[in-house]
Design goal:
Strand content: 5-15%
Distance between the termini: 79 Å
Structural class: alpha+beta
Radius of gyration: 28 Å
Shape: elongated
Length: 365
């Protein structure tokens, strides 16, 4: 009973993200990122992230908090990826445009590039997962009617639209997972999940214990994205049933307009699934957990070590042992003895033994 209470108290305490050759963990306002360099050493960085939801209570209301959280998570993800690149020493020579941004507009070129990438990424996501499925469904319907067939009804249109979204989503993830760099990131994603699962299970946080855990977690961003697709299918059916024969452009605008509501709803469902374990939450989580077979891979022991450094650092206020680990810099290897110093010590011992032998001989005489 006590162990179950301890496990429930640990739920939703920490979340994370896989980064370049590392893992970020966030607990409360504390963000700790650990990356492994090519020489095997670890680079640990710490940052604070104050959510605007704590300053404005209205932004922490159900549905609204999901939208705010989505924006904050996107911003934090971009910042964390930048920090991991800096930690690994990934630098490029500044262009004239980047120098102009820094001198004239006082804008860091990396921040500017990350901002542009974020906007383009969101735009591409809307195009792929909203615009393209609607266009393909419209095209299929046009082909059917041109061949003399009956137009598709509204429900069938929404189902086909949803199937196209699922196909695009799974196809994209499967293709990028073939890239060596992405595959390693997916392995760190697995390390993130396993270490969090180890902590939430109340087990001692070691790489060996974490390795025994499942690499799938209900509060994963992958699950959220897939859940959004499923919610979008239901929303599409409801819109077309409420407004029969709605024009494609009007339908697209309505879908864009209700997107924040769907994001907020998806966030609440993910929170519910992360806090409770019953047949309902398991059914909700099942599709997202299945997709995580693509976005997470089995990590190595050294990857779990990286994740555990981050989670102990982020949660050090929760556990005295984690605090002790952090203060002792427990992730840093013990200093190895200098071989030259060892040789000098050995030579000194031999000389000392010789002197002692000579003294013994003199006294015997």
């Amino acid at each position: 009973m006590e162990k179950n209470m301890e496990k429930s108290c640990r739920l939703n305490k920490v979340g994370g993200q896989a980064v370049l050759e590392g893992v970020m963990m966030k607990a409360g306002n504390r963000v700790v990122t650990t990356c492994r360099k090519e020489d095997g050493s670890l680079v640990v960085t710490e940052d604070n992230f104050d959510s605007v939801r704590k300053k404005k209570k209205i932004l922490d209301l159900p549905l609204i908090r999901g939208v705010v959280n989505f924006i904050e998570v996107m911003a934090l993800s971009v910042k964390t990826l930048k920090n991991s690149a800096d930690a690994l020493g990934i630098e490029e020579e500044e262009t004239k445009f980047e120098k102009w941004l820094k001198e004239k507009l006082k804008i860091n070129s990396t921040d500017f590039a990350m901002g542009i990438a974020l906007v383009l990424g969101l735009g591409l996501s809307l195009l792929l997962f909203l615009g393209l499925p609607i266009f393909i469904t419209w095209g299929i319907n046009a082909i059917i009617t041109s061949l003399g067939g009956a137009p598709m009804d509204d429900v069938l249109k929404s189902v086909i639209e949803g199937l196209v979204k699922v196909g695009i989503f799974l196809g994209y993830l499967s293709l990028v997972s073939l890239m060596p760099e992405i595959k390693r990131t997916f392995m760190y994603h697995g390390a993130e999940h396993k270490s969090i699962a180890c902590y939430e299970a109340g087990e001692e946080l070691t790489p060996e214990n974490a390795m025994k855990q499942k690499r799938f977690h209900p509060r994963c961003g992958t699950s959220f994205m897939f859940l959004m697709i499923l919610i979008g299918i239901v929303a599409g059916i409801c819109i077309r049933l409420a407004i029969p024969e709605v024009e494609t452009w009007k339908y697209t605008l309505i879908r864009l307009g209700i997107l924040p509501i769907l994001v907020g709803l998806g966030y609440e469902i993910i929170l519910l699934a992360g806090k409770h374990d019953n047949w309902f939450t398991r059914a909700i989580s099942a599709p997202g957990l299945w997709v995580q077979r693509i976005t997470t891979k089995e990590p190595t022991i050294d990857m779990l070590e990286v994740a555990i450094v981050s989670i102990k650092g982020a949660l050090r206020d929760e556990d005295p042992a984690f605090m002790e680990y952090w203060e002792k810099r427990g992730w840093e290897p013990a200093a190895e003895a200098d071989p030259l110093l060892e040789n000098d010590t050995a030579e000194f011992s031999e000389v000392a033994e010789g002197i002692e032998g000579e003294d013994d001989g003199a006294s015997e005489e």
